[in-house]
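Slide 14.
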Amino acid sequence: PATLVVLGQTVQITVSTIIGDGLTLSMLAKDTIVEVHGFVDPATNRLVATRIESKLPANVTAFKLQGTVSGLDTTAKTFKIGTTLTISYAGVAIADLPANLANDLLVRVRLDSNPLTSTATRKATKIRAVEVEVEDRDEAGVEGTITDFTSSAKFSVNGQPVDASGATVPAGLKAGNRVEVEGSLVNGFLVAKMVQLKDENEIRVFELHGIVSSKTSTSLTFTFTLTSSGGIVAKVSFTIGAVAFDNGMTAASLLDGVKLEVKGVALPDGTIKATRISLE
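Slide 15: predicted structure.
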């Protein structure tokens, strides 16, 4: 799957990810400022992006991040969100700290940082505990990926708990399926009246630019990793006869280290199926 790293968080781009107007994956470069909406996939601990938008540096006064506290060190006054980002709250006023700051607490953090600087540790200026308050609604719905699955009657979609005990559920429902659920909100649960599997063959067109690595081939099928200058990593595949080559590109010239432009479609697993490949 295509991925990028934002504030130390690995962001996975899927067939369902909406890319903001005027933005393409090939335009994303290192230190580009983006706003990412999504949910955490508990199986991979990655943020699965539902929408990505670019931001002008002049319009950004602070970075904001929401996540779960881990590795809390009350002596050093640091904690982590994710596995690589360390946040220091040594300079945060007591009034701007949650009274119950602890591991596993869901927090929203405002970060004081240079938008064009990437470091392992960032300074927080304000931290708030996230309080989820959901009002009951007669009509509600969600479309996305099943992120937690206990049974066909109890699962979560994009982190939203679903009670499907009173609905007809598609056979073979499992974690990772893309579904649409309609019903009502009751005490934080989406009580389903309808659960529908979404078409896994739905595709989205991508254009990527990057360097080839990890090339493998079996008969007429080739796979490789394409890494852009902005750090976006995508797994690409193509089959001879189903791909067009441009600008001197051939299957024989597909070598590690070669710079390519790849146009193709994103499959449900996030792999890019190339339809046109050009040398750059």
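Speaker note: The radius of gyration is 21 Å.
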